[in-house]
Amino acid sequence: MILVGLHEKEIFSENYPFRLEANTSGDFRYPLHWHNAVELIYVSEGCSRITVNGVEYLLENTEILVIPSGEIHDIHSIGKQFFIQFDISMLDGFGGIHNIKPFLTQAKKISTKDDKYLHKAIENKIFEMVHEYEKKEFAYALSLNARVYDILVLLSRSLVEKISFESLNNSSKRVFGLEKINSAFKYIEEHYQDEITLKDISSAVGFSEYHFSRLFKEITEKNFHHYLNEFRIKKAEKLLMNSSLTIAQIAHEVGFNSFVTFNRMFKKVKGCSPTFYKKAGV
Length: 282
Prior knowledge:
Layout: E1 2-4, E2 7-9, E3 18-33, E4 38-52, E5 55-59, E6 64-67, E7 73-86, H1 88-91, E8 108-110, H2 116-135, H3 140-160, H4 171-191, H5 198-205, H6 209-220, H7 224-242, H8 247-253, H9 259-270, H10 274-280
Antiparallel strand pairs: 1-2, 3-7, 4-5, 4-6, 4-7, 6-8
């Protein structure tokens, strides 16, 4: 693997999109970086302090953190931890991965305190992964891919059950609603550089503004405009660290028509100005 600016590339040394590393060095630090893979961090012993897009997560024994692809994060671990990375877009041999993307939009900490069943189920899948990766018996790569699918199913089903939006009171309605929100994510990815209003995106996915707003917040725990601004700021972070564009050009590139608005939103999301961020190499 190589680090180009903040972008960690070539992380998969095998001929399939999966990587598992164990830290047993006692004190492990890795600087701010991002990659296209989803990452699971499991603390076997000790603790880990991980910052994802400016939000700090403290993991203790047996706790798990799921970091979506493209998220800027750093790691400081003491003890023994497992780092598991996989690229879901390359694993989508049977289709269906796009349906769970709404559940992989922000980092999620999983512990026995919050959801004992989900934690135990994912922990068991991680143990199976570690065993397969260490033994490397026949068809172990297929087994690893299967465990990734198992974990994605556990995550998405657990989270969808927590959606309490009143119009989604049965399974078929929930699936329908999730498909609409997934369409919204695709719309944002394709149009974030343009001016997008709540009316625009609601019409694009076929919901009223009221119902779209309610459902979007249920799933993402953020209102639409908050999510859109955070998405744009994430794009700006990468350009600030990996391009020669001016800050004003970057603001326009990621969809802000006003430099003042961009500067204000960047400070709100990251806690510092884009100028400071670029100079400090935060």
